[in-house]
Amino acid sequence: MSCRACSSDWFLAKLGRCRQCILLNTLLLVIGLIALWLADNQTPVYRWMALFVTVAAALLLSAHLIMALYYRLNGDLK
Questions:
Q1: Smallest Cα–Cα separation from 78: which of 17, 12, 15, 11?
Q2: Does the CA dihedral 65-71-75-77 come out positive or negative?
């Protein structure tokens, strides 16, 4: 990735600091929602896969947004 926070090896150091990571995660969430919407007439395996991707992307985006808010409130933007 292009920023210093993304070059770090520690996962928690990356949360909420990189706009590119947050945008990619938002894109993953939108793709998961589209896959979930299109999986209505598919087999149950595809529906579970789409649900898993959507929930995982939503949880990761929530973690990014919570940490971004935390850094913004504490003034620790690095």
A1: 17
A2: negative
Q: State how far the Cα of 59 lies from the Cα of 69, in Å rounded to an integer.
A: 15
CA 25 to CA 17: how far, in whole Å?
13
Distance separating alpha carbons of residues 76 and 36, to the nearest angstrom: 37
For the chain, which residues make up each domain, given as ranges? 8-74
The CA distance from 49 to 39, in Å, is 9
Tokens representing 65?
Answer: 């947004």
Checking phi first, is residue 16 left (phi over 0); if not, alpha (psi -120 to 50) or beta?
Answer: left
Q: pLDDT tens-digit profile of 47-65?
A: 898 899 999 999 999 999 9
